[in-house]
Amino acid sequence: xxxxxxxxxxxxxxxxxxxxxxxxxxxxxxxxxxxxxxxxxxxxxxxxxxxxxxxxxxxxxxxxxxxxxxxxxxxxxxxxxxxxxxxxxxxxxxxxxxxxxxxxxxxxxxxxxxxxxxxxxxxxxxxxxxxxxxxxxxxxxxxxxxxxxxxxxxxxxxxxxxxxxxxxxxxxxxxxxxxxxxxxxxxxxxxxxxxxxxxxxxxxxxxxxxxxxxxxxxxxxxxxxxxxxxxxxxx
Length: 235
Ligand SMILES: Nc1ncnc2c1ncn2[C@@H]1O[C@H](COP(=O)(O)OP(=O)(O)OP(=O)(O)O)[C@@H](O)[C@H]1O
Description:
One of its GO terms (molecular function) is ATP hydrolysis activity. It comes from Sedimentibacter saalensis. Keywords: ATP-binding, Nucleotide-binding, Transport. Belongs to the ABC transporter superfamily. It holds the Pfam family ABC_tran. With 235 residues, this protein is α/β, with parallel strands linked by helices. The protein has a single domain, classed as Rossmann fold (3-Layer(aba) Sandwich). Helix content is 28%, strand content 29%. The protein has 6 helices and 10 strands; from the N terminus they run βββαββαβαααβαβββ. The chain has a 6-stranded mixed sheet with strand order 6-7-8-3-9-10, with helices on both faces. A 4-stranded antiparallel sheet has the order 2-1-4-5, covered by helices on one side. Strand 9 (209-214) and strand 10 (217-223) form a beta hairpin. Helix 3 packs parallel to helix 5. The longest helix has 17 residues, at 173-189. The two termini are 33 Å apart. The site of adenosine-5'-triphosphate has 12 residues, from strand 2 and helix 1.
């Protein structure tokens, strides 16, 4: 049986605003196994980003526990949480979040140099298809190319898990597909566990497991025995 790398148990997140309480998450439980490609699918406001931020150690739940490789990360110190985010998780966001004054290579270097066991930066940039663009600044690159830099930055840290929040949300169809293909290649070549959150149901076709969310709850978990390659996704 494959190893469970990430486990969420009864996660709830409440936001109190005056007299109103928003239940962003309510008793959410799921497991991610090493090497899986997971899609968390749900409409806007269903709690996807809140969940990703909690399992990525950027936010804490109101109740419930998160385990990474069997160790509980809820309730650990800020310093330990920083090490968790730094060494074990690679983040990819919708709007790339690159440093405008650094080249592609420098953006990746900056993230990798504080990590325990980084991967060779030039190799990763080659792997995402940017071998000839390493010295370009973000402003000299298309959105898809900037997202490739962001993926290289996340992978070069050599984390166990890539957490991707709407990674194709700002891209056109073809560029989006190419980014999904890069994520799948990172999943296979570097054996990274990948979690993608999206409201785009088409992307679910390439997942090993689809976790559907609505109004802060998981409504369905679908195991996909026959995930299709990104280039065959019907958008
Ligand atoms: N800091 C906050 N304070 C108050 N309410 C919040 C906060 N963050 C999120 N929420 C609420 O929690 C719910 C879930 O939000 P979340 O951003 O996780 O959803 P989402 O599925 O990621 O949506 P989207 O796809 O639009 O990003 C929403 O009702 C949102 O308004």
